[in-house]
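We treat protein structure as text, and this decision shapes the records that our systems exchange. Below, we set out a record of this kind in full and without editing:

***
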Amino acid sequence: MRIAVIQLGYDDAEPVSDRVARAAGLVRGQAGVDLVVLPELWAAGGFSYKRWDERAEPVDGPVAQAMSAAARDTGVMLHAGSIVERPGAGVRGPDGKELWNTSLVFAADGSLAATYRKIHRFGFGQGEPLLMEAGEALSLVDVPDSSPSAGAARAGLSTCYDLRFPELYRAQLDAGATLFVIPAAWPAGRVGHWTLLARARAIENQCVVVACNTAGTHAGVEMGGHSQVVLPTGDVAAMAGSDEQVLTVEVDMSTVTDYRATFPVLRDRRLPL
C-alpha cells in the first residue's frame, strides 16, 4: 500500500480559501497513491477556537466538496482530516451544542466513504469540550490496496487527543482494524508524547499507524509536525520533520498478519472477569 501523509503547515495570515486550494493541489500531486491523509482541522484551524463557529460547515460543505473533487481527480482514497461540522440549523447533540470535530474520508470516485466524530475532546473544559459535542461511535473503513493480491486494509479512524486513550484502539482492533489513521493538530510542546504514543498504539495492537500532524503556528500555538508511519513491530517506516512536508511511504500490509502469527501476543489477552 502506498500512503501519502500531507503534513500541512499554515498560519493565521493565510485565507481559508487559499489554504483549501493549496491542500487540494497537494492531494492532486499524489497520483498513484492508495491513501492520502491530511491533518485535523487544517481548514478551520486546530486551535483557532474563536473562528470555529464562522468556519463550521456540514459534511457536504465547501471544504468537503473541494476534497471530494481532489480525491476523484487523483483517483485516491483521501482521509481529508477533519472539519468543524455543523449538521444543520437547530441540530444539537446531547449537551446542547451544534458543532462536532468530524473526519471525512472520500473514496477514489469522490464519494463520502466514512465519517468519524472525535470521541475525546481536548481542552480540560475549554476549547473542544466547551464548544463541541463528543462523538459516540467507532468508525472503520476499508482502504483498497493496489499491491498484488493485497486486498484491502481495515482502517480505524481516530483524531489527535484520542491517541491518549488505548481502549479506543482495542475496540477498533476487535472490530477488525489492521491500520489506524490519526490526523492531528498536536502542539510542539508535547510532540514527544505524539511520537511515543503512536508507536505504542502500533506495538500493543500489532497494527500499522498513520499519524498525520500539522506544521506551522496558528492562534499563537506552534505545531509539532513529526508525522509518521509506524509498522506493527513499532519500527518507524518514515517520519517528517517540523515543517510542511509530504511523506510518501510504501507499506506491505501483510506484515500485520505475518507479525501477528510469528509473535502472537494478542492471543494471550485476558479480559477482565
Q: What stands out?
A: The two ends are 39 Å apart (CA to CA). The longest helix spans residues 191-205.
